[in-house]
Amino acid sequence: MSMNRRALLRFFASSAMTLPFAGLLARSSEAGVPTQTAKRFVVFYFPDGVPEPGPGGGKWHPSGSDTSFTLGENLQPLAPFASRCAFLKGLSMGPTDAGSHPGGAKKLLTGVDGGGGESIDRYLARTVGAGAPYKHLYLGAMAAQNSASGDKFVSYPSAGTTAAPEDNPVQAFARLFGGATPGGGGAPAVDPTQVSVVDTALADLNDLRARLGDAERAKLDLHLEGLRDVERRVKGLGGQALPSCDQSLASLAQVDTGKLYEAAEFPDVLRAQIDVMVQAMACGLTKVGVIQASQHTSELIMSRFAGTPLYKPGFDMRSHQASHYGQSSDPKFADYVAQRTWFVSQFAYLLDQLAQRPEGAGTMLDNSIVLLCTEVGEGNTHTHDQMPFVLAGRAGGSLRTGRVFDFGYRRHSDLLVTIANAMGDGLTSFGQASAGGLPGVLA
User: Fold this and answer.
1) What torsion do the CA atoms of 358, 362, 363, 367 make, to the nearest 10 degrees?
2) Which of 45, 255, 272, 315 qualifies as a FRET site for 175, CA 20 to 30 Å off?
3) For the chain, which residues make up each domain, given as ranges?
């Protein structure tokens, strides 16, 4: 992804400043934080659980163990990315409100019964993501339809408080790339071409200098002088036209903003939201984002998705309706399985878009940690055990991928701790019943 001058200076400020001293910073890092960490965190949520471990068991969780496994039917779209995924078994959200969609949605990212805590995405947005122009990006596809109540949303800025996602990808793109001030209102954002990013970071750098020996301090001073020279040359580009992050996205042209809540438009809206999220992250606008595809107990009529295996003209089959299939012999079961596979294919599209963008010695996917999740386990009974979590990306080299992890029984709060650690945060517990990060998942 190409960048304009502003984005280039933002990237320069966030990465070049500390790169040669990564080893120094790592030596002073908190316990639990791997040496290499992810640059970004993305949540991809879909509604109404999976067909496992009910009467149609075997459709979701891989068979086999460790690095010798076979993907279930629902996960087949991830076959090209299996070597960059960690498939998790044995994680539970606990017994409180088990059997409840709203109860599961409240616990999903907070790790606290009843949504009584900040969600992990919001926590990371205000910690490791605090320096980004937009700390947090929450995009939805029909997530706020029918004036949805707060428990339909999965992101909690504070205990007991949700915020609705932006369901309109055209508006989301305009807010991010159309010159609006981040956060809305207030004074215009400072033009990064008119200030020195080196000077802006001097407080943190002076703190680092105080902890260095004479030789390392001298190296830092030389490095800063080199950065100032690069900064002067970048600003000296003046009015030269550079390829811009502000270019539009082809998928936005497919979105009819007058039909955002019509089921037939859902695939185009979701695809556009994925594209907006990836472009925002590629351009350094945010490090933390959530994509919410519909809402729990979803009334999304997935049989209206033209051009997909789900399409059945004249026949309505909703996501939540299909999840109550009873027995695997019920015709709804085949629809439910196909729906779950379709959602996974959209997650695979997100991974593919990240993988197509070079970054450093690898790709954006290599430097990301991406969570696939839903609010219940087995959709037919709404269990909160054997939650169908998948982690993807390599988190900068810290995530051990291409394997299945089976924890027997462990609370999912420890997954949230693991994600924070992969992002460079030294959390040792999060939410309720946390025993620390998941063993073996991070290198």
Assistant:
1) -140
2) 45
3) 1-30+191-244, 31-178+246-422
